[in-house]
Amino acid sequence: MKRRAGEREKSMKKKKLLEELGKDRLPYMTPVDADFHQLWKSRYSKLIFRKSDTVPEELHQMVQEAFLTLREHDCFFQDLVRIKGKDFVTPVSRILIGNPGYTYKYLNTRLFTVPWPTVGYDIKYCSPQIHDVCKALIRLNDYLHIEAVKALQNLVETKEINDTTVIDGEQNFATSLAEKESISKDESSCCVQADNYISLKNRTSYNMTLLNYMDPLQMLYLKQEPYFGMGDMAVSWHHDENLVERSTVAVYSYSCEGSAMAESDEEILKGRDPAVWHVGLKVAWDIETPGLAMPLHQGDCYLMLDDLNMTHQHCVLAGFSPRFSSTHRVADCSRGTLEYIFGQCELALQNLQTDLDSVALSLKSLETAVIKQVEEIHNEVEFEWLRQFWFQGKRYLKCTDWWLKPIAKLEEFWRKMEIMTSLVLSEFRKEERIEEQRAKTIRCFLLVLTERQRLRKEWTARALRMERHYFSLLIGLDIIKAVQETATNSRL
Predict the structure, then answer these.
(1) Rg over CA atoms, the chain
(2) The whole model's pTM is what?
(3) Do β-strands 208-214 and 301-304 pair in parallel, antiparallel, or remain unpaired?
Protein backbone atom coordinates (compact mmCIF):
# COMPACT_ATOMS: atom_id res chain seq x y z
CA MET A 1 0.00 0.00 0.00
CA LYS A 2 2.82 2.40 0.91
CA ARG A 3 4.59 1.62 -2.39
CA ARG A 4 1.41 2.25 -4.41
CA ALA A 5 0.83 5.56 -2.63
CA GLY A 6 4.42 6.57 -3.42
CA GLU A 7 3.96 5.65 -7.09
CA ARG A 8 0.76 7.72 -7.27
CA GLU A 9 2.52 10.70 -5.71
CA LYS A 10 5.41 10.48 -8.19
CA SER A 11 2.98 10.13 -11.08
CA MET A 12 1.08 13.25 -9.98
CA LYS A 13 4.32 15.23 -9.58
CA LYS A 14 5.50 14.20 -13.03
CA LYS A 15 2.14 15.09 -14.59
CA LYS A 16 2.13 18.50 -12.88
CA LEU A 17 5.72 19.19 -13.98
CA LEU A 18 5.00 18.31 -17.61
CA GLU A 19 1.85 20.45 -17.54
CA GLU A 20 3.86 23.42 -16.27
CA LEU A 21 6.42 22.91 -19.02
CA GLY A 22 3.94 22.47 -21.87
CA LYS A 23 5.96 22.30 -25.08
CA ASP A 24 8.94 24.05 -23.50
CA ARG A 25 12.05 22.30 -22.27
CA LEU A 26 14.09 23.08 -19.19
CA PRO A 27 17.70 24.24 -19.67
CA TYR A 28 20.60 21.93 -18.91
CA MET A 29 24.37 22.23 -19.09
CA THR A 30 27.31 20.13 -20.23
CA PRO A 31 31.04 20.80 -19.71
CA VAL A 32 31.14 22.94 -22.88
CA ASP A 33 28.85 25.52 -21.25
CA ALA A 34 30.55 28.47 -19.55
CA ASP A 35 28.52 28.19 -16.33
CA PHE A 36 28.71 24.40 -16.07
CA HIS A 37 31.29 24.23 -13.28
CA GLN A 38 29.58 26.96 -11.26
CA LEU A 39 26.26 25.08 -11.51
CA TRP A 40 27.99 21.81 -10.54
CA LYS A 41 29.64 23.44 -7.51
CA SER A 42 26.52 25.26 -6.31
CA ARG A 43 23.71 22.74 -6.90
CA TYR A 44 25.36 19.37 -7.57
CA SER A 45 28.41 19.50 -5.32
CA LYS A 46 27.74 16.02 -3.89
CA LEU A 47 28.34 14.51 -7.31
CA ILE A 48 32.04 13.59 -7.38
CA PHE A 49 33.68 12.70 -10.67
CA ARG A 50 36.88 10.71 -11.19
CA LYS A 51 38.41 10.62 -14.68
CA SER A 52 39.75 7.31 -15.91
CA ASP A 53 43.41 8.39 -15.67
CA THR A 54 43.07 8.62 -11.86
CA VAL A 55 42.18 4.92 -11.60
CA PRO A 56 45.02 2.33 -11.52
CA GLU A 57 45.60 0.81 -14.97
CA GLU A 58 45.76 -2.71 -13.56
CA LEU A 59 42.27 -2.27 -12.07
CA HIS A 60 40.93 -0.95 -15.38
CA GLN A 61 42.21 -4.05 -17.14
CA MET A 62 40.77 -6.49 -14.58
CA VAL A 63 37.32 -4.88 -14.50
CA GLN A 64 36.98 -4.39 -18.24
CA GLU A 65 37.99 -7.99 -18.88
CA ALA A 66 35.37 -9.03 -16.31
CA PHE A 67 32.65 -7.12 -18.18
CA LEU A 68 33.56 -8.76 -21.48
CA THR A 69 33.72 -12.21 -19.88
CA LEU A 70 30.19 -11.82 -18.47
CA ARG A 71 28.94 -10.78 -21.90
CA GLU A 72 30.67 -13.72 -23.59
CA HIS A 73 29.02 -16.10 -21.10
CA ASP A 74 25.56 -14.50 -21.65
CA CYS A 75 25.34 -13.49 -18.00
CA PHE A 76 23.49 -10.17 -18.49
CA PHE A 77 19.69 -10.38 -18.35
CA GLN A 78 16.80 -8.01 -18.91
CA ASP A 79 14.47 -7.74 -15.90
CA LEU A 80 10.69 -7.81 -15.92
CA VAL A 81 9.78 -4.99 -13.52
CA ARG A 82 6.41 -3.73 -12.32
CA ILE A 83 5.52 -0.03 -12.46
CA LYS A 84 2.04 1.25 -11.58
CA GLY A 85 0.63 -2.27 -11.76
CA LYS A 86 2.04 -2.95 -15.24
CA ASP A 87 4.97 -5.13 -16.26
CA PHE A 88 7.83 -3.71 -18.32
CA VAL A 89 11.04 -5.27 -19.60
CA THR A 90 14.08 -3.14 -18.86
CA PRO A 91 16.11 -1.97 -21.89
CA VAL A 92 19.26 -2.49 -19.80
CA SER A 93 20.49 -6.01 -19.02
CA ARG A 94 21.78 -6.66 -15.51
CA ILE A 95 23.43 -9.04 -13.08
CA LEU A 96 23.88 -8.62 -9.30
CA ILE A 97 27.17 -9.60 -7.63
CA GLY A 98 27.84 -9.19 -3.93
CA ASN A 99 27.77 -10.63 -0.43
CA PRO A 100 26.61 -14.27 -0.22
CA GLY A 101 22.94 -14.60 0.65
CA TYR A 102 22.09 -10.97 -0.16
CA THR A 103 19.36 -9.76 -2.50
CA TYR A 104 18.37 -6.40 -3.96
CA LYS A 105 14.81 -5.42 -4.77
CA TYR A 106 13.84 -2.69 -7.20
CA LEU A 107 10.52 -2.04 -8.98
CA ASN A 108 8.98 -5.18 -7.40
CA THR A 109 11.75 -7.41 -8.73
CA ARG A 110 14.18 -9.19 -6.41
CA LEU A 111 17.65 -9.92 -7.73
CA PHE A 112 19.88 -12.53 -6.07
CA THR A 113 23.61 -11.96 -5.75
CA VAL A 114 26.16 -14.05 -7.52
CA PRO A 115 28.36 -14.25 -4.40
CA TRP A 116 31.83 -12.81 -4.69
CA PRO A 117 34.70 -14.63 -2.90
CA THR A 118 34.08 -14.32 0.84
CA VAL A 119 35.94 -15.82 3.79
CA GLY A 120 33.92 -18.57 5.45
CA TYR A 121 31.80 -19.41 2.39
CA ASP A 122 32.28 -22.32 0.03
CA ILE A 123 31.41 -20.87 -3.37
CA LYS A 124 31.77 -23.02 -6.46
CA TYR A 125 31.77 -21.09 -9.73
CA CYS A 126 30.85 -22.60 -13.08
CA SER A 127 34.23 -21.74 -14.52
CA PRO A 128 37.55 -20.19 -13.47
CA GLN A 129 36.66 -17.18 -15.62
CA ILE A 130 33.55 -16.43 -13.55
CA HIS A 131 35.65 -16.71 -10.38
CA ASP A 132 38.07 -14.15 -11.83
CA VAL A 133 35.13 -11.86 -12.67
CA CYS A 134 33.87 -11.87 -9.08
CA LYS A 135 37.40 -11.41 -7.76
CA ALA A 136 37.89 -8.37 -10.02
CA LEU A 137 34.62 -6.80 -8.91
CA ILE A 138 35.33 -7.16 -5.20
CA ARG A 139 38.70 -5.53 -5.90
CA LEU A 140 36.88 -2.65 -7.60
CA ASN A 141 34.47 -2.57 -4.65
CA ASP A 142 37.34 -2.11 -2.19
CA TYR A 143 38.87 0.64 -4.33
CA LEU A 144 35.59 2.57 -4.60
CA HIS A 145 35.03 2.23 -0.86
CA ILE A 146 38.34 4.00 -0.20
CA GLU A 147 37.48 6.69 -2.77
CA ALA A 148 34.09 7.23 -1.11
CA VAL A 149 35.75 7.69 2.28
CA LYS A 150 38.12 10.30 0.83
CA ALA A 151 35.26 12.11 -0.87
CA LEU A 152 33.19 12.22 2.32
CA GLN A 153 36.22 13.55 4.17
CA ASN A 154 36.54 16.38 1.66
CA LEU A 155 32.82 17.06 1.88
CA VAL A 156 33.02 17.34 5.66
CA GLU A 157 35.99 19.69 5.43
CA THR A 158 34.04 22.07 3.19
CA LYS A 159 31.14 22.05 5.69
CA GLU A 160 28.61 20.74 3.18
CA ILE A 161 27.12 18.02 5.37
CA ASN A 162 24.24 19.56 7.31
CA ASP A 163 24.53 17.28 10.33
CA THR A 164 26.97 19.55 12.15
CA THR A 165 26.76 17.61 15.39
CA VAL A 166 28.88 14.81 13.96
CA ILE A 167 31.09 16.73 11.54
CA ASP A 168 34.25 16.61 13.63
CA GLY A 169 33.82 12.97 14.50
CA GLU A 170 33.12 11.92 10.91
CA GLN A 171 36.06 13.94 9.63
CA ASN A 172 38.44 12.34 12.11
CA PHE A 173 37.15 8.91 11.36
CA ALA A 174 37.16 9.40 7.60
CA THR A 175 40.82 10.29 7.90
CA SER A 176 41.61 7.34 10.14
CA LEU A 177 39.76 4.89 7.92
CA ALA A 178 41.34 6.14 4.71
CA GLU A 179 44.84 6.04 6.15
CA LYS A 180 44.20 2.83 8.15
CA GLU A 181 45.24 4.50 11.39
CA SER A 182 43.88 3.48 14.77
CA ILE A 183 41.28 5.59 16.54
CA SER A 184 42.14 7.80 19.47
CA LYS A 185 42.75 5.98 22.73
CA ASP A 186 41.19 8.82 24.69
CA GLU A 187 38.41 7.12 26.62
CA SER A 188 36.19 10.20 26.78
CA SER A 189 35.91 10.49 22.98
CA CYS A 190 36.08 6.77 22.20
CA CYS A 191 32.31 6.12 22.31
CA VAL A 192 31.49 9.16 20.16
CA GLN A 193 34.10 8.24 17.58
CA ALA A 194 32.93 4.62 17.57
CA ASP A 195 29.37 5.74 16.79
CA ASN A 196 30.60 7.98 13.98
CA TYR A 197 32.80 5.18 12.66
CA ILE A 198 29.76 2.91 12.44
CA SER A 199 27.80 5.64 10.65
CA LEU A 200 30.58 6.26 8.13
CA LYS A 201 31.17 2.56 7.57
CA ASN A 202 27.46 1.91 7.03
CA ARG A 203 27.37 4.61 4.37
CA THR A 204 30.43 3.49 2.39
CA SER A 205 30.81 -0.29 2.86
CA TYR A 206 29.26 -1.56 -0.35
CA ASN A 207 27.63 -4.96 0.01
CA MET A 208 26.86 -5.50 -3.67
CA THR A 209 27.21 -4.14 -7.17
CA LEU A 210 24.51 -4.06 -9.81
CA LEU A 211 26.16 -4.48 -13.21
CA ASN A 212 24.47 -3.04 -16.29
CA TYR A 213 24.96 -3.58 -20.01
CA MET A 214 23.27 -2.14 -23.07
CA ASP A 215 24.03 -1.89 -26.77
CA PRO A 216 21.86 1.00 -28.07
CA LEU A 217 22.15 -0.20 -31.69
CA GLN A 218 20.39 -3.44 -30.69
CA MET A 219 17.39 -1.58 -29.26
CA LEU A 220 14.28 -1.12 -31.38
CA TYR A 221 13.19 1.87 -29.29
CA LEU A 222 14.58 4.09 -26.54
CA LYS A 223 12.50 6.49 -24.47
CA GLN A 224 13.19 10.21 -24.96
CA GLU A 225 14.17 12.33 -21.99
CA PRO A 226 10.99 14.38 -21.31
CA TYR A 227 12.04 17.49 -19.34
CA PHE A 228 15.26 18.84 -20.88
CA GLY A 229 15.31 17.29 -24.36
CA MET A 230 18.51 15.38 -23.56
CA GLY A 231 17.75 12.64 -26.10
CA ASP A 232 17.71 8.84 -25.76
CA MET A 233 17.54 7.41 -22.25
CA ALA A 234 18.89 4.01 -21.25
CA VAL A 235 17.54 4.49 -17.70
CA SER A 236 14.77 6.97 -16.85
CA TRP A 237 14.86 9.56 -14.07
CA HIS A 238 14.85 7.89 -10.65
CA HIS A 239 16.16 7.68 -7.11
CA ASP A 240 17.99 4.44 -6.34
CA GLU A 241 15.76 2.29 -4.12
CA ASN A 242 16.32 0.33 -0.92
CA LEU A 243 19.63 1.86 0.14
CA VAL A 244 20.93 2.67 3.60
CA GLU A 245 19.95 6.28 4.26
CA ARG A 246 22.53 8.83 3.07
CA SER A 247 24.82 6.10 1.80
CA THR A 248 27.14 6.70 -1.14
CA VAL A 249 26.53 5.18 -4.57
CA ALA A 250 29.69 4.59 -6.64
CA VAL A 251 29.65 3.92 -10.39
CA TYR A 252 32.38 2.67 -12.72
CA SER A 253 31.56 3.23 -16.41
CA TYR A 254 33.02 1.49 -19.45
CA SER A 255 31.74 2.33 -22.92
CA CYS A 256 33.16 0.38 -25.83
CA GLU A 257 34.15 3.45 -27.81
CA GLY A 258 35.07 2.58 -31.37
CA SER A 259 33.43 2.44 -34.77
CA ALA A 260 30.02 3.57 -33.47
CA MET A 261 31.58 6.78 -32.17
CA ALA A 262 32.98 7.61 -35.58
CA GLU A 263 29.48 7.50 -37.06
CA SER A 264 28.33 10.49 -34.97
CA ASP A 265 27.27 13.53 -37.02
CA GLU A 266 30.12 15.96 -37.45
CA GLU A 267 27.71 18.89 -37.17
CA ILE A 268 28.09 20.73 -33.86
CA LEU A 269 24.94 20.08 -31.85
CA LYS A 270 23.40 22.19 -29.13
CA GLY A 271 23.42 20.29 -25.85
CA ARG A 272 25.03 16.93 -25.26
CA ASP A 273 26.83 14.88 -27.92
CA PRO A 274 24.35 12.05 -28.69
CA ALA A 275 27.21 9.66 -29.51
CA VAL A 276 28.58 9.85 -25.95
CA TRP A 277 27.02 8.27 -22.89
CA HIS A 278 26.11 10.72 -20.09
CA VAL A 279 24.73 10.63 -16.58
CA GLY A 280 22.00 13.23 -16.18
CA LEU A 281 21.11 14.87 -12.86
CA LYS A 282 18.35 17.20 -11.77
CA VAL A 283 16.97 18.55 -8.51
CA ALA A 284 13.89 16.44 -7.81
CA TRP A 285 10.64 18.02 -9.07
CA ASP A 286 12.30 21.42 -9.61
CA ILE A 287 11.80 23.53 -12.74
CA GLU A 288 14.06 26.40 -11.66
CA THR A 289 17.48 24.72 -11.49
CA PRO A 290 19.10 23.73 -14.81
CA GLY A 291 19.92 20.05 -15.23
CA LEU A 292 23.39 18.59 -15.56
CA ALA A 293 24.63 16.15 -18.21
CA MET A 294 28.06 14.69 -17.45
CA PRO A 295 29.81 12.77 -20.27
CA LEU A 296 31.07 9.28 -19.42
CA HIS A 297 34.12 7.80 -21.15
CA GLN A 298 36.01 4.53 -20.76
CA GLY A 299 36.92 3.96 -17.12
CA ASP A 300 35.36 7.12 -15.67
CA CYS A 301 33.87 6.87 -12.16
CA TYR A 302 31.42 8.99 -10.24
CA LEU A 303 30.15 9.06 -6.65
CA MET A 304 26.77 10.26 -5.37
CA LEU A 305 27.47 11.31 -1.79
CA ASP A 306 25.38 11.74 1.33
CA ASP A 307 21.74 12.68 0.55
CA LEU A 308 22.22 13.39 -3.18
CA ASN A 309 20.23 10.29 -4.11
CA MET A 310 17.34 11.59 -1.97
CA THR A 311 17.27 15.26 -3.01
CA HIS A 312 18.14 14.73 -6.68
CA GLN A 313 17.18 12.32 -9.44
CA HIS A 314 19.48 10.86 -12.04
CA CYS A 315 19.14 9.15 -15.40
CA VAL A 316 21.48 7.47 -17.88
CA LEU A 317 21.57 8.95 -21.39
CA ALA A 318 22.51 6.52 -24.14
CA GLY A 319 25.36 7.04 -26.58
CA PHE A 320 25.98 5.04 -29.75
CA SER A 321 28.39 2.41 -28.44
CA PRO A 322 27.75 -0.55 -26.08
CA ARG A 323 28.30 0.33 -22.42
CA PHE A 324 28.91 -1.54 -19.17
CA SER A 325 28.68 -0.10 -15.67
CA SER A 326 29.25 -1.38 -12.15
CA THR A 327 27.06 0.43 -9.61
CA HIS A 328 28.22 -0.20 -6.06
CA ARG A 329 25.73 0.39 -3.28
CA VAL A 330 25.04 -0.08 0.40
CA ALA A 331 21.73 -1.87 0.05
CA ASP A 332 19.30 -1.88 2.95
CA CYS A 333 19.11 -5.63 3.46
CA SER A 334 17.12 -5.64 6.70
CA ARG A 335 14.52 -7.80 4.91
CA GLY A 336 16.63 -9.03 2.02
CA THR A 337 19.09 -11.63 3.30
CA LEU A 338 18.92 -15.38 3.83
CA GLU A 339 19.62 -14.81 7.52
CA TYR A 340 16.48 -12.65 7.74
CA ILE A 341 14.11 -14.96 5.86
CA PHE A 342 15.36 -18.09 7.63
CA GLY A 343 14.68 -16.28 10.92
CA GLN A 344 11.14 -15.53 9.75
CA CYS A 345 10.59 -19.18 8.85
CA GLU A 346 11.83 -20.39 12.21
CA LEU A 347 9.47 -17.92 13.90
CA ALA A 348 6.49 -19.23 11.92
CA LEU A 349 7.32 -22.90 12.48
CA GLN A 350 7.39 -22.41 16.25
CA ASN A 351 3.60 -22.80 16.03
CA LEU A 352 3.89 -26.31 14.53
CA GLN A 353 4.26 -29.33 16.81
CA THR A 354 4.53 -33.08 16.24
CA ASP A 355 2.87 -35.68 18.46
CA LEU A 356 5.63 -38.05 19.58
CA ASP A 357 3.35 -41.12 19.58
CA SER A 358 1.31 -40.67 16.39
CA VAL A 359 3.73 -38.37 14.56
CA ALA A 360 0.64 -36.27 13.77
CA LEU A 361 1.13 -32.54 13.19
CA SER A 362 -0.88 -29.92 15.04
CA LEU A 363 -0.82 -26.20 15.85
CA LYS A 364 0.30 -24.97 19.25
CA SER A 365 -1.84 -21.83 19.15
CA LEU A 366 -4.97 -20.71 17.30
CA GLU A 367 -4.75 -17.15 18.52
CA THR A 368 -5.68 -14.70 15.75
CA ALA A 369 -2.40 -12.77 15.99
CA VAL A 370 -0.33 -15.95 15.75
CA ILE A 371 -2.28 -17.31 12.76
CA LYS A 372 -1.99 -13.95 10.99
CA GLN A 373 1.77 -13.73 11.58
CA VAL A 374 2.40 -17.27 10.31
CA GLU A 375 0.31 -16.82 7.16
CA GLU A 376 1.96 -13.47 6.36
CA ILE A 377 5.38 -15.10 6.63
CA HIS A 378 4.02 -17.89 4.40
CA ASN A 379 3.18 -15.26 1.76
CA GLU A 380 6.55 -13.56 2.18
CA VAL A 381 8.46 -16.80 1.59
CA GLU A 382 6.41 -17.67 -1.50
CA PHE A 383 6.15 -14.29 -3.25
CA GLU A 384 9.21 -12.40 -2.08
CA TRP A 385 11.64 -15.31 -2.36
CA LEU A 386 10.61 -18.58 -4.04
CA ARG A 387 8.62 -17.19 -6.95
CA GLN A 388 11.12 -14.37 -7.41
CA PHE A 389 13.97 -16.87 -7.56
CA TRP A 390 12.39 -19.39 -9.89
CA PHE A 391 11.02 -16.60 -12.06
CA GLN A 392 14.46 -15.15 -12.79
CA GLY A 393 17.01 -15.99 -10.10
CA LYS A 394 17.70 -19.41 -11.62
CA ARG A 395 19.36 -17.69 -14.57
CA TYR A 396 22.36 -17.13 -12.29
CA LEU A 397 23.04 -20.84 -12.54
CA LYS A 398 25.24 -19.79 -15.46
CA CYS A 399 27.61 -18.45 -12.81
CA THR A 400 27.15 -20.63 -9.72
CA ASP A 401 24.76 -23.08 -8.09
CA TRP A 402 25.33 -21.49 -4.66
CA TRP A 403 21.66 -20.50 -4.21
CA LEU A 404 20.19 -23.96 -4.85
CA LYS A 405 20.73 -25.33 -1.33
CA PRO A 406 19.25 -22.36 0.57
CA ILE A 407 16.33 -22.19 -1.87
CA ALA A 408 15.67 -25.91 -1.33
CA LYS A 409 15.65 -25.23 2.42
CA LEU A 410 13.15 -22.40 1.91
CA GLU A 411 10.97 -24.71 -0.16
CA GLU A 412 10.92 -27.21 2.70
CA PHE A 413 9.88 -24.46 5.10
CA TRP A 414 7.17 -23.39 2.64
CA ARG A 415 5.79 -26.95 2.42
CA LYS A 416 5.47 -27.06 6.21
CA MET A 417 3.65 -23.71 6.15
CA GLU A 418 1.25 -25.12 3.53
CA ILE A 419 0.49 -27.91 6.02
CA MET A 420 -0.07 -25.29 8.71
CA THR A 421 -2.61 -23.55 6.47
CA SER A 422 -4.46 -26.86 6.05
CA LEU A 423 -4.42 -27.38 9.81
CA VAL A 424 -6.02 -23.98 10.35
CA LEU A 425 -8.78 -24.86 7.89
CA SER A 426 -9.36 -28.14 9.72
CA GLU A 427 -9.73 -26.30 13.02
CA PHE A 428 -12.31 -23.96 11.52
CA ARG A 429 -14.52 -26.93 10.76
CA LYS A 430 -14.71 -27.88 14.42
CA GLU A 431 -17.87 -26.69 16.16
CA GLU A 432 -16.60 -26.50 19.72
CA ARG A 433 -14.73 -23.22 19.30
CA ILE A 434 -16.34 -20.04 20.61
CA GLU A 435 -18.28 -18.56 17.68
CA GLU A 436 -17.14 -14.94 18.12
CA GLN A 437 -13.45 -15.86 18.42
CA ARG A 438 -13.78 -18.29 15.51
CA ALA A 439 -15.35 -15.63 13.26
CA LYS A 440 -12.61 -13.10 14.04
CA THR A 441 -9.87 -15.59 13.21
CA ILE A 442 -11.61 -16.64 10.00
CA ARG A 443 -11.92 -13.03 8.81
CA CYS A 444 -8.25 -12.39 9.45
CA PHE A 445 -7.23 -15.71 7.88
CA LEU A 446 -9.32 -15.15 4.75
CA LEU A 447 -7.75 -11.74 4.14
CA VAL A 448 -4.29 -13.30 3.95
CA LEU A 449 -5.53 -16.21 1.81
CA THR A 450 -7.33 -13.84 -0.59
CA GLU A 451 -4.09 -11.90 -1.01
CA ARG A 452 -2.24 -15.17 -1.64
CA GLN A 453 -4.69 -16.16 -4.35
CA ARG A 454 -4.43 -12.73 -6.00
CA LEU A 455 -0.64 -12.86 -6.00
CA ARG A 456 -0.59 -16.39 -7.44
CA LYS A 457 -2.73 -15.23 -10.38
CA GLU A 458 -0.52 -12.17 -10.81
CA TRP A 459 2.66 -14.26 -10.88
CA THR A 460 1.16 -16.69 -13.39
CA ALA A 461 0.35 -13.74 -15.65
CA ARG A 462 3.87 -12.33 -15.22
CA ALA A 463 5.39 -15.65 -16.27
CA LEU A 464 3.28 -15.68 -19.43
CA ARG A 465 4.31 -12.10 -20.25
CA MET A 466 7.97 -13.00 -19.83
CA GLU A 467 7.57 -15.93 -22.23
CA ARG A 468 5.94 -13.63 -24.79
CA HIS A 469 8.76 -11.11 -24.32
CA TYR A 470 11.45 -13.68 -25.14
CA PHE A 471 9.50 -14.76 -28.23
CA SER A 472 9.16 -11.15 -29.43
CA LEU A 473 12.82 -10.53 -28.56
CA LEU A 474 13.87 -13.31 -30.94
CA ILE A 475 11.73 -11.77 -33.69
CA GLY A 476 13.16 -8.32 -32.91
CA LEU A 477 16.73 -9.58 -33.17
CA ASP A 478 15.92 -11.11 -36.54
CA ILE A 479 14.55 -7.75 -37.71
CA ILE A 480 17.64 -5.88 -36.50
CA LYS A 481 19.90 -8.42 -38.20
CA ALA A 482 17.97 -8.04 -41.47
CA VAL A 483 18.18 -4.23 -41.30
CA GLN A 484 21.92 -4.36 -40.60
CA GLU A 485 22.49 -6.77 -43.50
CA THR A 486 20.48 -4.51 -45.82
CA ALA A 487 22.52 -1.47 -44.74
CA THR A 488 25.77 -3.37 -45.34
CA ASN A 489 24.67 -4.51 -48.79
CA SER A 490 23.58 -0.97 -49.74
CA ARG A 491 27.09 0.34 -48.86
CA LEU A 492 28.63 -2.33 -51.07
Answers:
(1) 26
(2) 0.85
(3) unpaired
